[in-house]
Amino acid sequence: MKQPHTDAERLQTKRRHLLNAAGIGCVILSVLSGLCVPGLTALIPIVSLPVWLLILPLCAVPVRKTGKGKLLLYPVRGISIGLLCLPCIMTVLCVSFPQSSALHRVRRTLYREGVTCSACSRILMPEQLPDSYSDYSFRIHAPSVLSDTKPDGQLRLYTTDTEWLDRYEASVNAMLPDEKLLVRIEYPAADQSDRAFPDAMPDAVAEAVKETGAQHFVYYATQGDYSHRQPYTGALIDRDTGLLLVWI
C-alpha cells in the first residue's frame, strides 16, 4: 500500500479514516435502532452491503484519481446514506403516528413484514381503508431489548361503508376449510341472556368494546389450542356503530 509522504496526504488519509470509522458507527447505531422491525432489518444488508463495499468504492476511485465521475458518485452516496438511515426511519414510522391514516399502508407493511410475519396478520390487517371512516387508530407495540412485552398491533376505525365491511369479512372467510386459522363467532349468541367476552380477548380490547356501547358484534378468533397459537389475535365488527377492531 502506498504510504502518504506529505502532510496534506497524511491529513487527507486521516480524515478518510475518521469518516470511515464514523460511518461504521452510524451503521451499527442505525441497525440497532431498527431492531423494532427485525423482519425487515435483517433484509437490508442484502441490498446495502454490495452498495457500501463494492459500488461506492468503485465510483469513488476515478474521482480520487482523475476528478471525474462526480455525477455518478453523488447519487450513489445518496443511496448509501438512505440505506444507512433506513432501519432508523422504519422504527420511527412503525412506532409513531398512530392516528395518521395516510401512513396506513406503510405502517401496515412495517408491522406485517417487520414486527410480525404471522398468517393472521396477513389476513386481518386490511390493505386499504374504506372511503369514509373516522376515529382511525393503528397502534403498534414493537419488540424492544429493554422490555419483555409481547409485540402486537391494534387497529380501530369507524365506517359507514357497509360494502367495505362486507369485502373485509369475505376476505377473512376466503381461506379453504383445511387452511382456516380463524373461526367466526357472533356475540351475544341466541341462547345467551347477556353478552360474554371471549377468553382470548385482551382486557384493553374488551374495555374498548364496552366504551363503544356495542350490543352485538361478529368476532373472528384463532381456533384450536390457544396455548399453541397466538392467544391475543382477533377481529371484531359491530354493524350498528360501524366499528372495526383488529388486534394481533
Please specify the SSE layout and strand pairing:
Layout: H1 7-33, H2 38-41, H3 44-66, H4 70-95, H5 104-115, H6 119-124, E1 134-141, E2 152-158, H7 162-172, E3 182-187, H8 203-212, E4 217-222, E5 234-238, E6 243-247
User: How many DSSP-defined strands?
Assistant: 6
Radius of gyration: 25 Å
Number of helical stretches of at least 4 residues = 8
Strand content: 5-15%
Q: How would you write the strand order of the largest sheet?
A: 1-2-6-5-4-3
The description of the largest β-sheet is: 6 strands, antiparallel
Approximately how much helix is present in the residues? 40-55%
Low-confidence sequence ranges: 225-230
Alpha-beta classification: alpha+beta
Nearest-integer average pLDDT: 78
Oligomer: single chain
Outline type: elongated
Order of helices and strands: HHHHHHEEHEHEEE
Distance, first to last CA: 56 Å
Describe this structure in words.
This protein has helices at 7-33, 38-41, 44-66, 70-95, 104-115, 119-124, 162-172, 203-212; strands at residues 134-141, 152-158, 182-187, 217-222, 234-238, 243-247. Helix 3 runs antiparallel to helix 4 (70-95). It is built from 8 helices and 6 strands. It is 48% helix and 15% strand. With 248 residues, the chain is of the alpha+beta class. The longest helix is centred in the N-terminal third of the chain and has 27 residues, at 7-33. A hairpin with a 4-residue loop joins strand 5 (234-238) and strand 6 (243-247).
